[in-house]
Sequence to fold (314 residues):
Amino acid sequence: MARRGGTCDARVLENELAFDLVPVAIFDMDGVLYRGSILMPQAKETLERLRRAGWQVFFATNNSTATRDEYVERLSKLGLGGDAEHIVTSAYATAHYLERLDPKPKDVYVVGANGLREEIRATGIPVRDASSLPGVEPPGAAAADGVDPGAMRRYLTSVDLPPPADTVVVGLDLHVTYAKIAEAQRCVLAGARFICSNRDRAYPVEGRLLPGAGTIVAAIEVATGRTAICIGKPEPFLFEEVLRRAGERDRVVVIGDSTDYDMVAAHRVGARGVLILTGLTEAGAVEQARGEAAPDRVIRSLQELFALPELAGV
Fold:
């Protein structure tokens, strides 16, 4: 089903049908190939079929909680294959964005998981340990939820504070606390660079959605009055890195579950955007997508992928 811009005209169809085999396929992972530990139907078969046909298969995810090596292990356990050279995460892209800054960061405070910290450290940039956070271990009265809100305030204003970090990086943190947000606020207000791995509002897991990194980013933006520089989708950095590795820019298909993130990022690098309705986006929301967010194609499952003209003959 052709979707781009909400209309279907003869010129678009002619261009689509003339679009022969596409040598690069970029898959989002959460909500497309799996949900949590549950493999999506036909995920393994889809990737195997593409690889047999000679396609370059890449994975690009906004999830910053794991390193690329950890994703290789996860994909292997699910039987999906892949290696680090064919995986680009928002953690990896954020780390290499920091590496290119001038001056390069010398003291990075991360609100996020260790996967994000490790990818940044791998570039040689110093990152604070999670255990060094001021206020990381509040006493019982301050830690007790709802018992004495003033106790946490008194505790945070009494702890010894290190000099503010020169860079704050925010990703998905499933253990986010008020103290973490407070320290990010302090550093940003003192002039630290403010960068986020992504702004995802949610991510799909087994049977439900959970809040994404964007919810944490928004809290710190409100607390500081500053807007974070975003590295992940819908910005083009992840897909640009894939295209650099693939050596191909003209014939690329992105398969993702979000109009706001995957489809926008696909169109910003000139790729075709195929929206799959197994993750973030429901069928009723597709009609609301406009401009860069409007998918070129919509499928309800991976089984429908090979019925598209772009994949004819695969």
Q: What stands out?
A: The CA atoms of residues 168 and 194 lie 5 Å apart.
